[in-house]
């Protein structure tokens, strides 16, 4: 009915397998979605501060500078997003993903979480604040297809 | 004077006769309006959760999952809307339509209600929060035409 | 830990049996809660406009005047509330209660719904926007006790 | 200069050793602080849903119900807080703490993080959004004393 | 049910006859209301700028300084108010009263207008944004009594 | 530097002489401005309610209906505007223009007032809340040119 | 008319002569004002980070830590304030005072500036965003007296 | 991934050397950035009020008029911006730049400061509220490149 392009922010772990499958799935389904995400090149992300603003030897402040530069990107894109998808994996602690979920929730943005069932108990507060909890990238695509077109797979 | 496209969200009962007449009327009048609405395929709407996120046997949680997925759509589109038209019929209780009206009112969105006079007393709080109460789809089109072009029918 | 008094708004049907049981239960439990509610004297509520602002013969405008005066009360108290409890019964359509729920949700207020299971499907959107769905007034008191004191019954 | 009581919300791990030391330290220092926190009785917190709203056998929905009830408490108290202190330990993943930090940051609340240096890299985004990162409960008390009274230890 | 004190801001013409009758009526009725208002001493109000900040010979800037100082009072009190009552009389143009009504409406504050029927057409936009239009000070008191206590006169 | 189109809302008296001169002046100057305004056809504006929603014999409610329909237009366009220009003339009381100014100011929109010096004292509160007070339509064009291009006439 | 205590935040230079005269003047005048301010002990303020959170040798990060701790105080108190008074002197650059003024203005708080006429041109943007510009501490007291009591000196 | 154009507002000193280098650098890097800035023609900026609204002989009010007109531009563009870059030099006091930083911070906009190390102590509060502090125009370009494309130089 409408030509609206949906802005979807993909928060979460920097190994982008799942992220790529969501993007590929949405493209294959022909959905009018514009994805954005944090920088997923792990090395670049870690050097975001010193690589742009100059050297810093203390690890805490290196991270602080980098996180500041990354936050310009992430918080701007979250504020722009219609939907925020937050992926949690087993490998990293991903406190930043949970932070993004809280940030999005406080702004009234719909959140979709994506994780295995074994993380359910640990993620119960985040899942509660979300509108949907998916187990696979395909399910996220199915949710987006339904939300945008009204069609079930 | 301006080429502005008006975003109009059509909340309310899933039998889309009235909705279609509003859309057809606006098109016939050549109004620059982009309509959006909840998913009006009743069966798809009821399966929105299990059809995308996987099976669930308990009816309460089936509905809960479905309502979450539908809310991604409806709350995003209401936040985007310039005007929210809320239709009430005799057939369903349509608490979701009243919920949408309250949600829109709290966001400062103009609301137009559409219903028969026999529902007036029951809908008095919702009508009060609205900027206009229409009886027919044609009247809604007339309101949109006037609001956008300044012309009366 | 804190002497905080919690503001709880009790929206919903004007037969106040359940409302009274919530208030009595909270008092019995010694909870620091200050309850507020719409005017529950049905006749007064219906005459709120003409009883204060002068006569009006047209039923639609009588209701409109009354609903305006009532909205001064309800919207002020909802904005003040920490928690909004919304009761749904079988007797009335209670679109105003669903409107209150939508209004509260858009303001980021936690909502607790209270209704029988037979209304679950019809209320799924409202329940989804709520933090808890209770079946009895006692359960609402239990939720308030836990939220305020951290104690389960 | 002012008799203002500061509202401080203590988010984070449910073993309350550090929390108690913050509260004791503030009391000892005679600071006008009113602390609040999530329910720190782990068992009660896990049963918050089923203990108030009735049985539920599916673990995901048990957690969902419980997290909803807990969110009534936590989100209300975070909205009320002047300062949000978020503790991270080594034992749990504490995604809820990171969620709280994101929620508080989006609301413009000052955040103080409290954790060991070995978590610095993993917590860099959360620390960046905070106004201060402390290593010990005593340092949090020192920050509160300075913020409220202008005195250094 | 609640001991809440209602904050009522009385905007409008500086001849305070009606304002005094509202205050007297509320006191007589024993309502828990705290009234505030712009400075109603016309001479002082006109000199608010030069009387505090120093001389200014140009009339436009005299008024500008005075209006700035008065705005500190009025905008603070309107932001604090639960209800804004706006009186219009025949004597002055009272654009400031209409400005206050628009300011309050944009903040989501309930507005009550008070004026004779002969001003109805000229005030239709302001009345539309109000929750109630009263003709007499007594009606305003009746509205406040009902809103606060649920009792009709 | 930027191709930004500025949205300018022209509030105020329905005789559109000044409004037309502002629009013509901006066009002549080649400014990237999109103007919007209330409906300036006085008769249509007065019939906005009954002409769209059906007959109403009571003058107060006729106006009420019309003002509701007009508010859908005006409040939407003010929320969209970058700058709100408010014209005051000698002929009407134009409480709606002052209302618009208050509404815009509370939303943080820059306001430009346009009126003769003889209205200065009566409009001092409105002028104070404005960023500029112009005497002629040409001055408004000059302000817009400078604001958009940085060039003085 | 009301027993309201006004919250006044005194931003600006750390030599507190003017600040003390404002506080003394308000007390002498018996005004119901509660003052707050940044920490005015310059040495403590500079050590606010390292004195609470531990040593740091790099001057930039020392300042960064200190400014973070100070911001917990200042931003909380500005959010709480009814009026923000910003003093500018000749001695320091006081970018923090101008920052506070911008922060307060964006939140819709009334600002009063206090400085000598020789700084007028350099401070024109800040003064424009203020409701009043005073030259002396006594004038600030006069503004507060008028705003609160309606009396000119 | 996205075709998003980033809006960057360049606040600060009117000698536009650094500003031009940022714009040239971003263009050379092919970044999708739309820059905006205050009027950097110092003479025009000083005459912004009298050059558009008519003569004024008192210097304070000349500046006041000019600052009002300039504020229409600057506050609109800051509200539109994704990122606000604030440059500080040695030559002017640039209280307006610090004001812009405070205004942007209160709106939740990411701020990047740009200044020499010798100003670090004086600017510590502003730097603390910023997400990044750069020393050169090239570093600002590097930050923008990374934020937008994820690439380090």
Structure commentary:
8 copies of one chain form a homooctamer. The longest helix of chain A has 22 residues, at 59-80. The first copy, chain A, is globular. With 153 residues, chain A is of the alpha/beta class. Chain A is built from 7 helices and 5 strands; from the N terminus they run E-H-E-H-H-H-E-H-E-H-E-H. Chains in contact: A-B, A-D, A-H, B-C, B-F, C-D, C-E, D-G, E-F, E-G, F-H, G-H. At the A-D interface, helix 4, helix 5 and helix 6 of A face helix 4, helix 5 and helix 6 of D.
Unreliable runs of chain A, pLDDT <50, ≥5 residues? none
* Helix fraction bin of chain A: 40-55%
Class by alpha and beta content of chain A? alpha/beta
Order of neighbouring strands in the sheet with most strands of chain A: 2-1-3-4-5
Average pLDDT metric of chain A = 94
* N-to-C order of helices and strands of chain A: EHEHHHEHEHEH
Q: Radius of gyration of chain A, Cα only, in angstroms? A: 16 Å
Count of β-strands of chain A: 5
Largest β sheet strand count, sense and barrel closure of chain A: 5 strands, parallel
Number of helices of chain A: 7
Based on the structure, what is the oligomeric state of the protein chains?
homooctamer
Into which percentage range does the β-strand content of chain A fall? Answer: 15-25%
- How many angstroms separate the termini of chain A? 19 Å
The greatest interface here is: A-D, 39 and 39 residues
Approximate shape of chain A? globular
């Amino acid at each position: 009915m409408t030509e609206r392009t949906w802005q979807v922010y993909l928060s979460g772990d920097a190994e982008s397998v799942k992220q790529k499958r969501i993007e590929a799935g949405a493209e294959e389904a022909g959905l009018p979605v514009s994805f954005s995400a944090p920088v997923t090149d792990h090395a670049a992300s870690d050097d975001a501060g010193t690589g742009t603003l100059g050297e810093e030897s203390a690890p805490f402040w290196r991270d602080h500078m980098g996180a500041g530069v990354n936050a310009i990107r992430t918080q701007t894109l979250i504020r722009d997003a219609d939907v925020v998808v937050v992926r949690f994996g087993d490998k990293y602690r991903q406190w930043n993903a949970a932070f993004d979920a809280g940030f999005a929730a406080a702004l009234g943005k719909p959140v979709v979480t994506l994780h295995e069932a074994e993380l359910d108990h640990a993620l119960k507060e985040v899942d509660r604040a979300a509108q949907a909890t998916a187990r696979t990238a395909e399910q996220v695509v199915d949710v987006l297809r339904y939300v945008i077109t009204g069609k079930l797979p």
